[in-house]
Amino acid sequence: MRRRLNLVALAVTSMVALAFLFPLANLVDRLAEDRALTLAERDAQLVARIVAANSELIGAETAFARVTTNGTLSGRDVSLITADGRTFGAPIPPGEDLEMALAGSTLRLATEGGQAVLVPAVGADGELTVVRVLVTDAELNRGVTRSWLLLGLLSVTLVMIAVAVTDRLARSIVAPVEELGSAAARLGTGDFSVRVDPDGPPEVAATGVQFNRLASEMRRLIQSERETAADLSHRLRTPLMAARLRMEQIDDPDGRADVTRDLDEIERTIDHAIEELRRPARSLASGGTVFEDTIRARAAFWAPLAEDQGRAFDVVVPFTATTIQVAPADLEAAIDALLGNVFAHTPEGTGYRVEAEVGDYATLTVSDEGTGFSSDLATLRGQSTAGSSGLGLDIARKTAEAGGGTMAVGRSPSNGASIRLSFRPAPAP
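Structure (tokenized):
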């Protein structure tokens, strides 16, 4: 914004300077010309008066010769033209129109190499003569170039001063805005202690005050959320401890092992949920996960339940080790959300397939042989037609997007549901 304000000031002041510069330059040119011609006319009149006063006594030619030096006066060529057409002093270009001057008119005449000033003189004997003074182009333009340079320098100086003043004012506006932007970036990374010094124009200063209030309120809310998370952790672990004590009363070793596994998974899920509450947002910098290993582990976790429900399942995962920039807990939660949907929303005995592929993107596809669902409904957070919270697919979508990929909802070959998650592999070290 500061650069744009400077450019605007440069453009506006340049236009104003040009609007005055051209008329002033033209005026200087005319003033120089008029000054030179006025001086020449004065000299011509002086010579004409002397010639007229002395023409009867010593003759016009002699009087002219005495007042001029070899046909020059004040560095200008001077000529004397008599009524019968004779010329004395500086030569006159052939073809120059002298009729009006010989008729008694004072005039300025454009001629070769400049302008001629013609002044008639009538002697005591009544004889008419004309004094001609030549003003060269160099004399007409004397001092004009210097004046133009001074005007140009003055215009440039004024433009620079205007831009400097604008830059000073712009800095007073932009600096507080840049500070706000930097503080907002820090706030976005989770630094809730950041504050700004309200400065600049009243509107920007007021924005800084509101930003500080927002940061304080966010810090208070986050602190309250973390305290709630700690309280939730304590409350959930109490019934878990009671469930473990009751589990010891189960006589069947296999049943006790299954319940133990389920309770361990619940406790892991609670820990993950509390970590999520304490983390402000998902980030690519949250760590890396081996894509294939995590899929195998979660598929193996759900396998016993699938066998109990008579579900046929396939797990197709390549024996590679691709790292994606997603936290392990996030990827596990996403896979559990997809597999949990299969178990929650399809009848027992419905088969499913877990397939992973690795190329430009690492992709995970979970498909089933159920009746499928609307893709529009599935991607809306909190929307469900099966009595669930509707958050599972939203968790999976956010995880894919945090990993640089996307989520796609479609149909399986058996016309059931198919969910495809893609992740961008981490750069090679």
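The CA atoms of residues 120 and 130 lie 4 Å apart. DSSP finds eleven helices and 13 strands in the chain.
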